[in-house]
Write a structure and sequence with these properties.
about 0% helix; four-stranded antiparallel β-sheet; mainly beta; three-stranded antiparallel β-sheet
């Protein structure tokens, strides 16, 4: 079982709960004042990262990320 964290340097980290070891770190460069939401998808192989920069009137961005590689599978910009 894994869990997700995001630090102040804009890094998303995947952790193994049983061992406490970091499995993967990747950077998703967001806007400076954005709020974030990160959730695993039911397949256990990917996650959704949502960036909402309402302070700068920017549109919300939703990214579908592969957990094992940290690469963006899809990206959506909400209008």
């Amino acid at each position: 079982m894994s869990c997700i964290s995001k630090d102040y340097d804009k890094n998303i980290k995947i952790w193994d709960i049983a061992t406490g070891k970091e499995l993967l770190t990747f950077c998703v460069p967001p806007a400076d004042n954005a709020e974030y939401s990160i959730n695993f998808l039911p397949d256990g192989k990917s996650l959704i990262y949502i960036e909402d920069d309402h302070f700068n009137n920017e549109s919300e961005v939703i990214k579908h990320l592969n957990i094992s590689t940290g690469k963006v599978i899809r990206s959506f910009k909400c209008l």
